[in-house]
């Protein structure tokens, strides 16, 4: 049984696993064989001691960390996968803790009492469809994967068990759980009654009325007394057609539509109690936010659009945070692309640990800060400049910006002492922190402490204040998990490095075809500075000769910059691009370790049954992933006759490893162009004789790719290493498919099996035909 559970998790060699309730370790030792690290949370110290003895002195010991305590209350580390033979008394708390924990795990394989498991996977209209079913299925995909009989346990329990797979939806639906759960508490209280009868039941209307009036009182909202809660509810049910519906048959979408109707008339606060409302204000994370702001050694705009700066709630923080991210992205755009910088209107400034109101001066673009010794005391105006101080149209928002504050010559005392702490930031620091800010708010629901806007402009390179408030190895893992960067291996040195895919690649690609000379110069210059482009290889070294940014992006290199290895040896295969490379002896090996999309089959990729048959059942393949900074022309890996080119329209999903490694069908869903080369390679029986085989080159468009362009035509002979085509702006991938039996270079095979891409250049030898 332990082996079956571990297999269902599809663990990767790089995974960090959280195990809840390991007991004596029967399941733990199987997980340790597959995963990089295991954190086991055990309530019973005696069981923890037994588990420690079991791995003591063995290689697995260094991969295991044991936490003794209550899982529900424990401070958890980062983890990719959760596996648990769940203590049945914490079944529900465990599920909801996993779904609310950030960052979300990739998958959870959990064993529960059979009845609880069946309620998790129940569907509308069945006897077990319940509030639990709806709440969990709002945030995750749940599958029943195996039954576990009593005889699998010693001593046998009184109940049957089942194992379920829970895959959290990422990103999570933008629905407040308290509202959704509050509605479900009501409608599932009498699940077989009509929704109208349920709401009109004794005590329900009164409860809603009480909740609503309490909330309005706390928010200083005037209630229209002439409109009764009963009338409001009847109107909602009638307009949504839910009068005769029953909760037992309503699916998640039906419940969401009903909740949306409550939103439309502004009474969702009636669905849950005043105690829940108050939790926001006193939430420990909200307090932590304030403490973190106060302890920051540099002045910052705190992104809280509230006139009561001493008591920001989590709701306040969230409301302003989304706008601050918009501002960060536009600020970045203005500094690198000469685009516009929106100007913010008001917010809260932190200065010397004191939170005070601030506003943007529309006359000069500076920040006017009103300083007072108390919330009701007199205000003193202080002018501060906003960097960069460029003219720009204003935008509607109450949020504060995330830009650095420093006093101008006209500023008064009280700010000069802190201004000296500002450091000139690098573009990479801006990008890392801006992307971290974006992800932390979208994944956490409560963006915890990354609310000191200054971090996007002037943070120390080691992020000393940032690291203590994130989980271990948070930044690099966070960026990788959110498609913001990846670990890759430099082939020549075997050095493992982390490549950042910054906010730059998320700016709409249309502007890159602009012919405005000033804009083009700014785009090219910032691109070169950001990615440290080697200009010595350019075929056209005069940067003013490029009419658009896209011309520079798809630039040609000097004729001898990418010479192919062994050009006269037909058995040698060379890299098709400057890229991050993974190689796979067979299609199945790629699917097992790297490409997890369920529709990733050869026929789905090439859209041709005939071509798929010609390549055989076990073709070899190489995946060349190009990042925005790479030379974006791709070359032929072999010599051959270009017999066909077929274009298949589709999407432009990211092809970063974390997307490819998930159940996302990015390669078979994306726009792609397929070329078939008829290549002459050595016959298996003789090194002197040649056989003709099809080699397929699939150019896959990805994030923000403008287009896929071919430089060669059908019917032409293409030499090994010659250019085939190019991509316009964005990330992209080339997949080359070869007949079965290609012998890939050993270092590439080893890295690929470890889940690490290798940096290679076009023309480098990567393998041979047998």
UniProtKB/TrEMBL annotation:
Transmembrane segments: none annotated. GO terms for molecular function: 18S rRNA (adenine(1779)-N(6)/adenine(1780)-N(6))-dimethyltransferase activity; phosphatidylserine decarboxylase activity; RNA binding. Keywords: Decarboxylase, Lyase, Methyltransferase, RNA-binding, rRNA processing, S-adenosyl-L-methionine, Transferase. SUPFAM superfamilies: S-adenosyl-L-methionine-dependent methyltransferases. InterPro entries: KsgA/Erm, PS_Dcarbxylase, rRNA_Ade_Mease_Trfase_CS, rRNA_Ade_methylase_Trfase_N, rRNA_adenine_dimethylase, SAM-dependent_MTases_sf. Residues 1-170 form the Ribosomal RNA adenine methylase transferase N-terminal domain. SMART domains: rADc. It catalyses: adenosine(1779)/adenosine(1780) in 18S rRNA + 4 S-adenosyl-L-methionine = N(6)-dimethyladenosine(1779)/N(6)-dimethyladenosine(1780) in 18S rRNA + 4 S-adenosyl-L-homocysteine + 4 H(+). Residues 364-388 are annotated as: Disordered. It is an enzyme of class 2 (transferase). S-adenosyl-L-methionine binds at residues 1, 21, 42, 70, 85. Gene3D superfamilies: 1.10.8.480, Vaccinia Virus protein VP39. It comes from the Eukaryota. CDD domains: AdoMet_MTases. Its EC number is 2.1.1.183. Belongs to the class I-like SAM-binding methyltransferase superfamily. rRNA adenine N(6)-methyltransferase family. Specifically dimethylates two adjacent adenosines in the loop of a conserved hairpin near the 3'-end of 18S rRNA in the 40S particle. This is Dimethyladenosine transferase. The lineage of its organism: Eukaryota, Fungi, Dikarya, Basidiomycota, Agaricomycotina.
